[in-house]
Structure formats: structure tokens, C-alpha cells
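quick one before i forget lol
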Amino acid sequence: MTESLDAERMACWRAYIESSQRLFTRLEDDLRADSDLSFADYHVLVLLSEAPGQRLRMGELADRLVFSPSRLTYQITTMRKRGLVAKEACPADRRGSEAVLTAAGLFALREAAPHHLRSVRAHLIGDLDDAEVACLTRVFERLGRRLRADRTASSVPADK
């Protein structure tokens, strides 16, 4: 029983990984065709647009993007050259720096967002077959149950 459950779980995760790789490749291609932004560019711009003052410390940005510091430095450098972001000294930490969204970056994000959302909808509906949808549904249901259980376990009871 446990072996079949483990085999099913592995099959689900494999399908999830393969489906998401295919999906992200197509989304990246569409995003580049519509806006000349990479998926990483788009993600950086979204995070900065949602941050207070449209700026984030580089360490926090790397954590949210799950980027290594060297990968983030490369990403920000290429985006700076294109005028999408600026890099400034962080007033709270003299040794650190912040990525700051520029007007050109905000404009690029606003232009790309509708195309990207349309692309996500099209690929999610059109590119996944029924077996992949069923498998992904099971994965997300399990993840949702685990997150709810973790949230319940970590909630502190209110004192009366």
C-alpha cells in the first residue's frame, strides 16, 4: 500500500515538474516576444512594484526570487543597463544596497502584464492534458492540506 502511494506521489511530482518546465518555457517565449522581458526580469519588476517605495534590499530580493547573490547581481546589472531598475545604497545598512524600480521599469511591467496574464491563461488551458490537470490538482490539494495543517499547528491560541 505504501509503495503504491509513494509511486503515485513520485508520478505526480514528475508530471508536475515536466508540466511546469514546459509551461515556463512557453511563458518565457511569449513574454520575450511581447515585451522583450525575460521571466526573471518580469518577476523582479513585479516584486519591486509591490514593495514599499518600490525598492527592496538586495538580500531580500534574492530570498524572494530564490536567486544566488551572484545570479541576482547579474540580473540587476543587465536590468540597470536597460534602465528598468536602479541600484542605490541602502540607508538602513551602509554595506548593503537596494534595487529600485525606475519609471521605465514600471512602464515595461505595465505593458507586459496583460500579455503575460493572457499567455498564462492560454497555456494553462490549452497546453495541459487531462491527466496532467488531474495530477497537478492532486499535488495542489495535498499542498493545500499541508499548509492548512502547518498554519493551524503554528497558530497561537488567544488568551481569554
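fyi The CA atoms of residues 12 and 83 lie 42 Å apart.
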